[in-house]
Design a protein that fits this description.
Elements lengths: L1 H21 L6 E2 L5 E2 L1 H14 L6 E3 L7 H4 L4 E9 L1 H6 L5 E8 L2 E9 L4 E6 L3 E6 L1 H5 L5 E2 L2 E2 L2 H5 L3 E3 L9 E6 L5 H14 L2 E6 L3 H8 L4 E4 L5 H13 L3 E4 L18 E4 L2
Parallel strand pairs: 3-4, 12-13
Antiparallel strand pairs: 1-2, 4-5, 5-6, 6-7, 7-8, 8-11, 9-10, 14-16, 15-16
């Protein structure tokens, strides 16, 4: 559990650095794939790497150096990071961006931490302990409050502030699908039409970044189909949390589990389903 505590602290620290940039008149660059890049991406990456490299585990980050598969294939356990997931939402200033940290073992995310800086919400989950959400996370767990001297506090102090996912279902029976805020596709619209024929009343809501996976983990949505490009760092933390909450995240057309540290870091289309 020390790795989880370290990841939680790193995510909150990175989120606080992101907000400092968010409150300025920041500039926007563009990478070779035309995706946006800001100082917030770089600052978050620097903080996460500084904290997590102390574990001695390899790190694969969206904003870091992407080693060839011949070097990565020997990694049994490694950190997979998206320092600022939803940079487009950050640039739009709609608040729907996150810090994503996953621990991957044998191609499977076994631990995930997602921090939402603007609303100060923290999601985390492991295969052993389940999935949880903490509101007012920085206020409750603000670094270096996770430490007493050089000794990590115990997980009960984190769990005491957390609520188990998924949340108890409400009386509302409407089937809810969550889709991408910035990447809507005809395939998702077709899925919604088909679900309306089956369920009658279907609600389609939009969100940015890994928040869509978190909504399924919470039980606020029953389905998140993604029929567009994503990278491994976009989804690994969310998958760990969703699966720890009893949901499943599988390849769209085969139903096979999503795998990580592939030769090509591009994800296949996928779907997240509530349990």
């Amino acid at each position: 559990m020390e790795l989880l505590l370290l990841a939680i602290e790193a995510a909150i620290q990175a989120g606080e650095a992101i907000l400092k940039v968010y409150d300025t008149d920041f500039s926007v660059e563009h990478k070779s794939d035309r995706s946006p890049l800001t100082l917030a991406d770089r600052e978050s990456h620097r903080i996460l790497v500084d904290r997590l490299e102390t574990t001695g585990l390899p790190i694969l980050s969206e904003e870091g150096r992407h080693l060839p598969y011949e070097e990565r294939k020997a990694w049994n356990t490694f950190w997979l990071l998206d320092p600022l997931d939803g940079t487009k939402e950050f640039v739009k200033r709609n608040g729907e961006f996150t810090v994503n940290i996953a621990l991957v073992t044998d191609g499977k995310p076994v631990m995930g931490v997602i921090y939402v800086p603007v609303v100060d919400s923290l999601y985390f989950g492991t295969t052993e302990s389940g999935a949880y959400k903490i509101t007012a996370a920085a206020f409750t767990l603000r670094p270096p409050s996770l430490y007493v001297g050089n000794t990590l506090l115990q997980m009960p102090e984190v769990f005491s502030s957390a609520k188990r996912l998924p949340f108890p279902s409400s009386s509302q029976k409407r089937f809810t699908v969550v889709g991408s805020r910035s990447h809507s596709t005809p395939e998702v619209k077709k899925i919604v039409r088909e679900l309306k024929q089956k369920h009658g009343d279907v609600e389609l809501i939009s969100a940015g970044s890994s928040l869509k996976i978190c909504m399924v983990a919470e039980g606020r949505a029953q389905l998140y189909p993604r029929t567009g490009p994503t990278m491994e760092w976009d989804t690994a933390a969310g998958q760990a949390i969703a699966e720890a909450a009893g949901a499943e995240m599988v390849v769209f057309d085969t139903g096979e589990p999503m795998r990580y540290n592939k030769v090509n870091l591009l994800n296949p289309w996928f779907v997240v389903k509530s349990g």
